[in-house]
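Our preliminary data section would be incomplete without showing what the modeling component actually yields. Below, a chain of 229 amino acids is followed by its predicted structure, encoded as tokens that our downstream tools consume directly.
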Amino acid sequence: MSAEQKRKAVVSACQKYDISERKACKLLSISRSVQRYIPKKANDEDALRKDVIDIATKYGRYGYRRITALLKADGWQVNHKRVERIWREEGLKVPKKQKKRGRLYFNDGSCIRLRPLYANHVWSYDFVTDRLSNGRKIRMLTVIDEFSRKCLAIKVGYNLTSDNVIDVLSKLFMTEAIPDFIRSDNGSEFTAKTLQKWLEVLKVKTAYITPGSPWENGFNERFNGSLRD
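Predicted structure:
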């Protein structure tokens, strides 16, 4: 039993059996100084916890070791034990493996197995995060033509929203072409009603991958991995 578990057991014993803290500490073989110790929380604990939860949400089948690797690539100096502690405290777990699905679902509920057949047939976009030398986090919006593997745009900023997505796409539609499909995850920037309606007017179909299945956006994921490195 860890010191933290013993501290909780002492509190529970005092409440349940109406005994003094001194007696509970003696019964559980824990010193009163240890019982009254208040662990100091690291200054970056809240930020790290948020990033762990964000990554676990985006990559549904990633365990704490793979999340640790992504955090390090993102600029964090952290070991897997600390990530595992946060992982367990937040009740995170890897879901049971399901049969891999190669189909994409559209706004109208239809689905197809979508593969790029020619330039400007399928574009994909995604966000990748990194940190500056001062530790401040930045986000990059990347847009890829899946057939040619050409990077069409990289938009960098501290806070990028669906309005920024529309701005980037507007410029690309004028300088490159208007694609038939745009593939993405289900992030709020890509599922915003204003963006969906705007693309619908331009007759661009949005292809959303299955939540927690980044491999279905493999072209962009591989590019973002290289960009981050």
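The beta strands are 104-105, 111-112, 122-131, 137-145, 150-157, 181-184, 205-208. The CA atoms of residues 3 and 72 lie 29 Å apart. Preliminary results of this kind motivate Aim 1 of the renewal.
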